[in-house]
Structures are given as structure tokens and as C-alpha cells.
Amino acid sequence: MPEMPQVQALVDFLDVRLVHRVAPDGEVLDGGAHVTGVTLGSFAVLKTAVPPLDAIAGAEITGVARFGKYVDLDCDGVHLVFHLARAGWLRWLAHPPARPLRPGGKGPVALRLEVDGASDGGTGFELTEAGTKKSLAVYVVSDPTDVPGLATLGPEALTLSADDFARLLTDHRGQIKGLLRDQSVIAGIGNAYSDEILHAAKLSPFAIAAKLSNEEVGRLYTAMRTTLDAAIAASAGKPAAELKDSKRSSMAVHGRTGEACPVCGDIVQEVSFADSSLQYCPTCQTGGKPLADRRTSRFLK
């Protein structure tokens, strides 16, 4: 799933090509690109009806912004907002599409947006989604806060002060892994970076947020900031096609079940749930004890 560092890199990527455009010779181009066409490959991906999708046709793209893990394209006052969910991605169209997108088709393309005047000669982008479980979502709204999930977002992870972060934990009686992933509490962190943050903080994912000591809260806050800052720096300037691999290669424990922990050399373990899993290092995070591979347990007896 794309998380805040990769989504921010996508926003920066689109901003350069569609809004603050620079020609290959370095000349700054006037104004943003204009939408010349927008087509659905999947009717289910569009979650709104008013304004209609074609309301952005012909509009100038005047801004690109990120809210949590949502991307917002301001098309002259009408907003195209999308959330890539677990298996979605953005594919930049370097050349005109070979054939029109067929609505209702069975392929991976959920939406195609075409523009004129992209800074690198490209023609827009496609939103794609792999797998059979489709949850990529697109909204056309007059105000981004009309998007239900966006309206309930908590504060951005990197805008929280240490004191505000500590207060959030004090009020949360659940496990710290769930708190870090809860977008209504802290926006932008998902399954992968919550694993990485907890590993860097040397905390069990099953630790109860409200029971952490002041020293543990401080470690967790520092780990959150340093992990996300490093991921943003690693993603910066990369084209959309390279961001997934960049994310995978930077992970210490997430997605590395059975491999050696880069800090202590212990074997990275996994806890599987119905629709997700987490990875952790027993030596670094749980005092050498393996976590039970079921949702409600703390440790194997």
C-alpha cells in the first residue's frame, strides 16, 4: 500500500509535470496543463455523482496536494481526489495511449486522465489496481472535505509536537500498532511504516499505547519522525515507476519475514491476520519472545 512518503513523492511528481511545469530546456511554462480527457476503466472506482466526472474536462490543473494518503488535483475549482488503497498505483503516460480505454473492462486500469502540455511531453496518467479485491477510490467534489475519509483524518504525523503525540497515546487504550495505522488519529502511516517505526523504537506492536513509559513514548516519537523523514528523502525526485521498489528496498523488517534483522541478526517474524500481517524482530522488540500468530494474544505461552 502506498503510504505518506510515496504519496508525497507522487504529489511532487505530478506538480512538476502538471502545475509548475518546466520545459526540457529549463523554461518555466505558463499555467498548468489542461485536462483533455478523463475516462473510467472501472465504474465502481468513482464514489461520487455530483459534480460529474466530465466536470473537469477542459479545466486547467491549478494545484496538486496531499491529505494523509489521499491525492487532490485541483482542476480549476473542481477537485479530483483519489486514494490508491492497498494495490493501487499511478502510471505516468509517457506517450499517447495506443487505444481508447474501454469502460467496464477487466484490465487493471481504473481511470485514465489525459492532458495537454505536460512538461516532459507526457500525456497524463492512469490509476491502476492489481488483484481481485478492488478498493481504489476516486471522488469528484467541489471541496476536498466532502470526501468522507478525508474529512475524518487526524493530524499529519510530521506536524505533531512531542507533547501532542504523548497526549494522543495517553488517550488510546488499544495496541500501539493499531494507533499508528488509525488515520483518524494520525494521518499518513500505514502497515509498512508502522512496522518500521516500531522496530526503530524497539517496541512490541502489541504494547498498549496508554501504558508506555515516558521514555518509550519519546523513543516512539523520535522513531516516527526519523523513519518518515528518511523515507520522504529516499522517495524525493523519483519518478512514479520507481517509488514502489524504493519503498521495498528501504524496509528493515516489513515484508522481510524469515530474513535476518539488520540491527541484531535475529530472524524477522510475522503475525498474520485475516487481511494483513505485521513483521517484527523478537530480539529488538519483544525481549526475544515470539508473538502469538493470532489477533487477541500477546505472547505464546
TrEMBL record:
Query: What Gene Ontology molecular function terms does this protein carry?
Result: 8-oxo-7,8-dihydroguanine DNA N-glycosylase activity; damaged DNA binding; DNA-(apurinic or apyrimidinic site) endonuclease activity; lyase activity; zinc ion binding
Identify the residues that the record assigns to the FPG-type domain, covering every copy: 252-286
Q: Which Pfam families match?
A: Fapy_DNA_glyco (PF01149), H2TH (PF06831), zf-FPG_IleRS (PF06827)
Q: Which UniProt keywords apply?
A: DNA damage, DNA repair, DNA-binding, Endonuclease, Glycosidase, Hydrolase, Lyase, Metal-binding, Multifunctional enzyme, Nuclease, Zinc, Zinc-finger
Q: Which GO terms describe its biological process?
A: base-excision repair
Q: Which SMART domains match?
A: Fapy_DNA_glyco, H2TH
- Alphabetical list of InterPro entries matching this protein: FPG_cat (IPR012319), FPG_N (IPR035937), H2TH_FPG (IPR015886), Ribosomal_uS13-like_H2TH (IPR010979), Znf_DNA_glyclase/AP_lyase (IPR000214), Znf_FPG/IleRS (IPR010663)
Q: What is this protein called?
A: Endonuclease VIII
Q: Which reaction does it catalyse?
A: Hydrolysis of DNA containing ring-opened 7-methylguanine residues, releasing 2,6-diamino-4-hydroxy-5-(N-methyl)formamidopyrimidine
Per the record, the similarity remark reads: Belongs to the FPG family.
Required cofactor(s): Zn(2+)
Species assigned in the record: Tersicoccus phoenicis
